[in-house]
Every structure is written in C-alpha cells, then in structure tokens.
Amino acid sequence: MATKKKNSKHHSNGNRPRNNSRPTTARGETDALVRPVERSSISSLNQHLRTYSIPDLRQEHPNLTVRQVSEKHKDAPDHVRYEVSGNLDAPVPPIRDSQYLRKQQAIEIYRFMLLNRKMEVALENLYKQGKVVGGVYFGLGQEACSCASAYALDKDDWFAPMIRNQGSLLVRGFAARDTMMQYMAKADSPTRGRDGTSHFGDIEKRNMVSPISMLGDLIPVLSGVALGARLQGRHVAVMTYIGDGGQSTGVTYEGINFAAVQNLGLVLFIESNLWAYSTPSEMQYRCKDLAERAIGYGIPGVIVDGTDACQVYDAARQAVERAHRGEGPTLIEAKMMRMKGHAIHDAAAYVPKPMFDFWKKRDPIARFENYLVKDKKWLTPKENAELISEVERIIEEEREIAVNSPMPTPESAEGGVYCEEGCHEIKPKYGIPKVKKGTGVGYKQTEAAVHLK
Amino acid sequence: MLLTYLEAIRQGIWEEMDRDPSVFCLGEDIGIYGGAFKVTDGFIDRFGPERVIDTPIAESAIVGAAFGASLTGMRPVAEFQFMDFIGCAFNQITNMVAKTHYLWGAPAPLVLRGPSGGYVHGGPFHSQNPEMWFVHNPGLKVICPATPYDAKGLIKAAIRDNNPCIFFEHKYLYRRIKGEVPAEDYVVPIGKANIVREGRDLSIITYAAMVHTALEAAEVLKNEIDLEILDLRTVSPLDREAIAATVKKTNKVIILHEHSRTGGLAGEIAAIINEEAFDDLDGPIVRIAGLDSAIPFSPPQEEHYLPKIEDVVRESRRLKAY
C-alpha cells in the first residue's frame, strides 16, 4: 500500500520514554544510583536522602525506547504502530568472563543452549508437519538465560520454569522428548497428555514445580517450597522466572514480599524480553529497570545481560549461594529480547524491525560460541562442529521417540483428580522437622475480642 | 468433654500439630494475637513462631506458600481471617492447587480454613458462604461441619488427607453451640453425610449452621411432621448414596442452604436426586436458600436474606400436604 506519511505524533498514554529520566550515577555506568524521589529542591535539602544501588553486570546499556505513533495518511486510514528510537548501531559488547565457570562448565552450558535451540527448531518443524496440538512457544534469544540460570542450581534445589524456559528443563535432566511429547499431547508425555508445553513437574527427583498459564503464581509457591525445606532444616534455593509482562500481576508482589519477609531463598529471574505478547515493556511499568523493584522489597537486585551466559550464571550462582546460606531472596533482571512472536501463530509484525536487527546481533548462542571458540579457545572449530552435530543427532533421536509415542486413550482423561489411598506416600523430603515445644499448655479460656460474635 | 465448636476445631489442630511435626499453621494475625476469632490462641507459645507463622496480608501468597510447602511433604494449615477473602486467592486455589494432582501427579496435602457464614451482621464481606466457588473445582475437598464432634473429627481428617481441603467453619456456631467430644483421638471421614435426626415424612438435606435451623424446625413440627435431617458435612465430594437413601425413605425432600439460590448446592443435589431416586419422589424438590443478592448488612435485611426456622416450617407443611 503506497501511503505517504503526513505526520506522526507520540501518544501520551503512559508510554513515555524512561531512558531520559534515568538518574545520574555516582559511580559510573555499572551502578545505577536510584533515588526515591527525583532530584529536586526538596530532595537536595533533605538531610535524610537515602540512596540505593543496583549492581549491573552488563557491558552495554542499550537505550532503545519503544513508543506508539499515530500516522495520518492522506489517502488511507490512520495507522497506529510502534516505533523504536535510540542507538540501534551500538557495537556488540564482549562476553564478560565468569568468576566461576571453568572450561568444561562453560562448554556444558553452551551444549544445553544448543540443545534448547535445536529442540525448538524441531518443534517448529513438527508444528509445520501438523504433529503439534495447539501452538509452540519459543525461547529464541533467551537460551542463555534459561540454561545458565538453571545450571547454577545444585541437585537439591528447586525450580519452576515459565513457558520460554524449555532450556532450563534440559539442564535439570529432562529429555527433549519430554517437552516434545507434551507439545504433541502424547500418552508418554510427563502429564500423559493432560497438559502441554513446559507444564509438568517432578517433586521426587528433579524438584520441579509445574507452571500454570497464569503469571506470577509460581513465585509464592516456590517461596513455600523454601519454607517447607527450612522447616525440615534445609536452606534450599528455589528458582523461578517471570517476564516483564508477568511481573505486572499482583501475585508477583505478594510472592516476592512473602519471600522477603520470611527470608526465603527465592532466586527470581525477571526476564525482561521487551514484549509481553504484543505489548512493549514501556507500557508495563514506569521505573527504569525492574531490578529497582528489589529496593522496595528490601532485597538485593541485580541486572544482567540476558544474552550473556556468563553474566546470567554468575548472578544466579551468587543468588543460589545466598539462598544456601539462609540469607534470603534475590531478584535478577535479565535483559534481552523475545526473538519470535508470543507463540508460533504470531509473526510479531508489531515489533519494529530494527529491534530484531539490533538483538539478532546479540544472539546468545552466536556470542557464546564466538567466546568459546575465538576468545577463550576452549573449543576448536572442529570440536565445535562435532558438538553441534552431536546435539543435532540427539534431537533427531528424541524427536523420533516422541513422534512414535501413541496418543492417549480417550478414557485416560478420567481418574487421578484426587490422591487416593495408596497413591502417594507423603513424608517430609529433607527429614522430619525438628520440633521445639514451648511450655505453653494450651489456650486461654478467653472470649474472642472480635466484633462478630 | 463438652466443647464449643471453636474449641473443638482448636483442639483438633492442636492435637495434629502435637502428633505430626510436618503440620504447621500460617495466616494473618494467628500468632501472638491468636487469630481474629482466637482459633489458634496459645499455639505460638506451644509450637513456636516457626510453626505458627504470621503472614503479610496476601492471600495468594498464603495459599501459594502453603502449596509449595506441601510439595516438600509438609502439611500446612492456612487460615483465612474470613472466608470471604478466599476470593483474593481464587486463582492460586483453582488453577494451581486444585489441578495439581490430575495434571502432573503431585499431591497437595494442605488445609485452607476459616470462618464463613451469616447471622452475625458482618455485612457483605464478612458473612458469605463461598463454598460453591470451590465445589465446581474438581480436585478440592470442601468441608462444612455443623457440630463440635464433626468439626474436630473433620479438621483432623482434613489435615491427614493427601488432598487440598477447604474447611469452612461457621462463625455463628463458633461459641453458640457446645457438644460432647471424646478425649481420645478420632477422625470423621470426609465425604460421608450423617443423619442427625431420623424421620419418616420428609427429608431436609442441609449442612453447617442450617442443620441447627432444621433441627429447631423439626422441634416445632414434632407433633405434626416427622422430619429426617441429613447433615452433608462435606459438600465436595457429595455423599450421593446418603442423599439417595434419605429420599428413598421419605419420598419428599427440602434442600436448605445459606448461600444464594441460583447456582447453589441445592441445584446439584436436585440433579443427583433426579439421577438416583427420581421414581421415589412424591413431590417437587423444594429449595430454601439465601436471596440472589449480596448479603446485606442491616439486621432486618440480613434476616430477610437468610433462611429462617419459619421458612423450613412453612415449606415442610406445604410439601407434606402436596
């Protein structure tokens, strides 16, 4: 459609740019100094002005802003679209060396990231072949965040993925076939056809809580897992994820606040992937960085580049170790971009193309590959090629097994609503809680001091 | 021993905490204050703040945390200050907790408990009977006791059950009724109704505070109509056999509940009777229920909204004459 742009204006419906109002930092770019009130004559007079800092591990600070613009056309209907502004030509920064990761660990994370991506490519093909029931959700561009975060957990720790964390499942020991069978609604899928996607769990071996589609509900649940373990004498780390869209829910606040008040070892990744379905982050929240929310909860917050596996791992590991020491929750904001639509049906035409170009250059796998092969020389090109073909072979085998699993029988829809006699033996996972009994002997025979008697 | 309804619940939770170290309580103001209705009075002194946890005012977090702890093999007992506030945790209960065992096979042995019900002029947000919100959610057990004996036996059964149980305590009954409760350990099975009064002429199927309303109506009618009263005790899962049995015996039935008529439990029970005992009916199934509105605050209005003894007497006479 040949239309001529006549004028455009910025909408004022709350999606004002955040970058320009960023407070200046005292210690330079890596530490954002956040003030509770903007610099003003009142605050400069205030002797009790408090300052907080949010560590920022990133080696670049993209300043892209999305806003809605209205285009008036002379010979066509008005059109509202998203427009991106900022330095779209910024160079790609190097990967930050990890404080912890040795060669073998780094390669293993890289391998999981490859598995993650190639599994999703296989899923896309299965969808095109008509073998998937419903849609497919992708973590394209987010593989470093999913894989390096879960890699930081110890065996006894717990986690719960969100829809794009299919890589986390691989790291925690699930096979690619599990997720593939979920998507194809097969009889052998972990939920035996009853749910799809990453919606499954395992409280016996892999300590994974199944997600639900409603966003934020996992946060108090994982906090409760940490509470249960603590009553049994163990400080476990409990990791889960929420998007920049999902964090808008009220239960997100309730869950983090509960973990903060109870000092539970929650490791919460806020995956700031810029788009919540079709809504840009500018229309989800007003603060500059979601990690700043940590200040309000009274817990540590940190910002990482979600496309840099080393940064993700380091922040996750530090948070996990804090949790193991019983020091409470940590909020980690990982910045990246969702590089596909919300699900496979969504072409993401609303995303300004220059944003895809910008983040494509920051592809987490390409960056990590370059780091391992060229910067660190931990992988020779030959070893890298072998690794990639091994991963492709595994995914092909897994795909074959998944495809050949039968569909569930109709009758298998029935049963299992309740835990019946002999179905589960329930006992504390980490040992019988040590019970301290006070000398309290019982309740007082008091009348209730309530107005409703 | 003779205990009030509230004391029976308190004793039930206390004994379970004494017996099983995996049981703990969480909720708003349940610790030093002992709960808004003092159900957990003295618990923190005995069991310590680790097992009697005062939480922020955040019902989704309370339910979520209880559920998470249950996944590690704990048996949390979460208190709602008033069951009206359970709506704040609705998603967590219906989408997370209720579906867990069916979808991915994880048991969730937790109890959500708190006061519900009217007749205390609590107004629209402190008098509701929200049990039907959960009866429509497979995977939950919904319990509504009417007597001290049942309240203690059922709270203990709920704590020991491997499924999420929602335990509605009727706040009108808390301190108004007393009943004999054995000193030794016992449970009342979940899902089993109980005939609290045998009769020949017609059956009243009801539960919670309405059991006492029905009993008083039976007393009024004793020389006139011989009422049988079935106390459901558990509203999900329903005791279909007991419902069918009483209808087959008396052939006439009134279903009595406090909550609003439309979409209420009486509709479901009527359908069960239709399926199980249609040929045994000698009259229409009668519903006595709350009005299809919010529960109003002012005493004359609340009284008008809620079922009364006179309603049961009047409807019983009408049905008997049918």
| N-to-C SSE string of chain B, H for helix and E for strand | EHEHEHEHHEHEHEEEEHEEHEHEHH
Question: Averaged pLDDT of chain B, please?
Answer: 98
Count every helix of chain A, treating DSSP H or I runs of 4 or more residues as helices.
12
Give the helices and strands of chain A as they follow along the chain.
EEHEEEHHEHHHEHEEEHEHEHHH
Main β-sheet, spatial strand arrangement of chain A = 6-7-8-12-11
State Rg of chain B: 19 Å
Question: Cα-atom Rg of chain A, whole angstroms?
Answer: 24 Å
Shape, per Cα inertia axes of chain B: globular
Number of domains of chain B: 2
Query: How many beta-strand runs of chain B?
Result: 14
Sheet with the most strands of chain A?
Answer: 5 strands, parallel
For the record, the CATH architecture of the largest domain in chain B stands as 3-Layer(aba) Sandwich
Characterization of this structure:
The complex is a heterodimer of chains A (453) and B (322). Chain A is α/β, with parallel strands linked by helices and 453 residues long. Chain A is 32% helix and 13% strand. Chain A has a domain at 103-408: Thiamin diphosphate (ThDP)-binding fold, Pyr/PP domains (Rossmann fold), CATH 3.40.50. Chain A has twelve helices and twelve strands. Chain A is globular and about 80 Å long. Chain A starts with a strand and ends in a 49-residue tail after the last helix. The model of chain A is unreliable at 1-6, 11-16 and 19-37 (pLDDT under 50). The longest helix of chain B has 15 residues, at 5-19. Chain B folds into two domains: 2-180, 3-Layer(aba) Sandwich (Rossmann fold); 194-321, Rossmann fold (3-Layer(aba) Sandwich). Chain B is globular, with a radius of gyration of 19 Å. In chain B, helix 1 runs parallel beside helix 7. By secondary structure, chain B is an alpha/beta fold. At the A-B interface, helix 6 and helix 7 of A face helix 1, helix 2, helix 3, helix 4 and helix 5 of B.
